[in-house]
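Please check the following for our workbook:

***
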Amino acid sequence: MNANAPSVGPAAKRSRSAPQIPRLSPYELLKRAILSGEFQPGQPLVENTLATWCQTSRTPVREALRRLEQDGLIDSSDRGLVVRKRSPEEILDIYETRMVLEGAVARVAAERRTEHDIRLMQLLWQKDGDISGPDAMVEANRQFHRAVWKASHNESLLDLLERLSLHLARYPETTLSAPGRWQTAHRQHKQLVDAIERRDADAAHAIALSHFADARDIRLELFANEISEG
């Protein structure tokens, strides 16, 4: 035995075997800060400052900023890169695009759904009847709509909808907290599942369009209230 070798006691052995918690990449850290509102719309994004904040070098931060610009979460300005600002025009753009995509995914889901897809959507809809509180409603709504997306078995549509969700996440207030909205959405979800189950593509498409047109109108009202109170 080498007398000069460092001793390895129980504590050292435990530290070696303990699972390491992976650190978030600069891209994930910055994206979370933007979506949570920690970085405000219009806030300048300076590489040196962000590198210190992320505890890393400038190179991975530069790559993260490039990806975030591609995602549409940040913009170039005369001051350099800034967090993208919010506007009623953008809300309309997002929801017009979402209505097209959600209508398409509902139609395709009605054509391609499996029995497993139907059972999952029905189960989620039944669970949603007992939901209360904005955070729980947002998560239940997210799960339900992703189940509809997956029922389309169309990866291209799923990718586009996931990307669009990033933009919508920049508007933190939920439309589901508006008076009566959760009850209306719950009813529309049931109508959507029924149309998909009976493979009525036209009805599924129409229900999805109506559902998200309602959400668009509420989102615009929420934003107007936020501006008037700001």
